[in-house]
């Protein structure tokens, strides 16, 4: 039944039955003649009398602490036995205004008090238990709306049944029952059945909710699980009632024991519910724990507190530690926690309606509190005769403060539901502060997605870094429940990545205010991503530089040790051998010297090769400008026609430079030379260029600009080894390089290399 239409129908049916039970018990209570008193729990039945308390608004002569022993001469024990006696005489037909003789035990004395049956004072009783009814109504309202929006969500189904059990069991329990109900029989059974049935539904629904929240457990995948859960609860309770009836011959004692039997089911159900929630917390994801943090903890607090001060003392002592109208308020954090889970963690995506409900509900409560407080205070000052003036002034005070309270509530709720969409400066400032306080570049993507998600309370935000066609996921917040919206991150004219954003609900779109905030956040995020990429590129470049340097040292050591070293050692030995043979065998000595000459030339060639690898010799022989022109002249010679279909044309290269360049540091000179010849080589080899211009300028920086008229760089092309090498050489010196298309076609390479202060133009 997991997530199925049958499951939705089952939940709606059970919840409807529970509400009907509650309404029937309400109707029976209103239509049943009342003694003006209500019993103090089922525990009062144990000693053959029923302890009662007056109902607010009643004029009954019976008082608190009275214990009803008999009505019209019939003992309560005998009347209780008739409840299960199928052959008992039919109950009397009593109406409003009839008078009955009630025998009560008051302070150890038996009194016979005539009582006129009256209509149950419903308004006063409901007002006395307003807290409990408000709590149940609020919970049922939240659950009904959640179920309406997500009818096939198992958690919504469990929540609906549990909330229906709360309000439906509150009605008979808080309105109570009267000794006259035992006389009439039907009202007592209506109270007993509706109270226990709906109360057991409450705890079965709570366990159902725990099994499905925040994600359905594997057990719910079986179609029989949920019906078996509810059916099992009632079958166990019925079996307990049968066993208790067989063990307890006295009907009054059996009825009194039913309250305790309920808790043999409630307590295990509570333990299982908490255990399931704890297991979901232990094995759940970060998102699951965020939701459970609100619902699980407040639910556990409410349940344990209610049992500790209400139900357990009611069973043990016969009365709760606090009035029930106060005890039930311990459950108020549950609907608040569910609303918080919905708002902050998008459990069921119903933010808009909850937004309005919180605003206007809070406004109504605030106005009521202001009116009540003001009217009470003014009434105490002006006395009873000026009550109209006090009410008028209280109404005016509430009206004057209503708009201010409404605006404050709207700001608070909007921030809770929609984040900082109405205060973009706050969101941008928070993002900037977090970026400034971060020392590790690797954490920047995570900070960006968390800040964007927090700014607009989005369930899913992801950051992809890179250019078009080469995007990589750098950080993810939450889980995508809808198709994400893509928002590009741009720095200057370059796309450095994109944000993937999920709406808060499937049928929602970003408002203009939210879109404006997202655009502002995207600009800040684009700059941060660009800076992060530059920083990471520099770090990686330095790592590669250190690695390359160490590899070069290893190569030099190997070449010197394995090549040049043995060659020089062999030359020394041949020189010694030639010296020894010079006076004995000059022909052999001459042969040794000839071989020595050959080895010396080979060693010299190796030395030149090592030197050329360290620094291009053309730089020392011709200078930077001359070396570039020498390389350009080689490219100006057309390659031989080797019979291939495509033959590259000669490249005309124009090298422009000032008459005199300052004395350049060796590193700058080598970097400028490598960048220039790499750009020329790319123009000739890859761009099929016919003309190319190289321009060098010096000032505070040395700039190298290479323009060609080739076909340019393909769209979306990734940097090759040559371009990467040019960028790394510029970055190593603290410079920069730009490779971009020419407005007139071709490619433009522009590099900037910082010069030390002592390097000045000639």
Report what the structure shows.
The structure is a single chain. With about 750 residues, this protein is an alpha+beta fold. It has four domains: about 5-325, no CATH class; about 360-420, no CATH class; about 545-615, Up-down Bundle (Single alpha-helices involved in coiled-coils or other helix-helix interfaces), CATH 1.20.5; about 620-635 and about 650-755, Heat Shock Protein 90, CATH 3.30.565.10. The chain contains 21 helices and 15 strands. The protein has helices at about 5-30, 75-80, 120-130, 130-150, 155-175, 180-185, 185-210, 225-245, 250-285, 285-315, 325, 335-345, 350-380, 385-420, 425-435, 445-455, 510-580, 585-615, 615-635, 665-685, 720-730; strands at about 35-40, 50-55, 65-70, 75, 100-105, 110-115, 460-465, 470-480, 485-490, 495-500, 650-655, 690-700, 700-710, 735-740, 745-755. The strands form three sheets. Strands 1, 2, 3, 4, 5 and 6 form a six-stranded antiparallel sheet that branches. β12 (about 690-700) and β13 form a beta hairpin. α7 (about 185-210) packs parallel to α9 and α8 runs antiparallel to α9. It is elongated, with a radius of gyration of 45 Å. The two termini are about 90 Å apart.
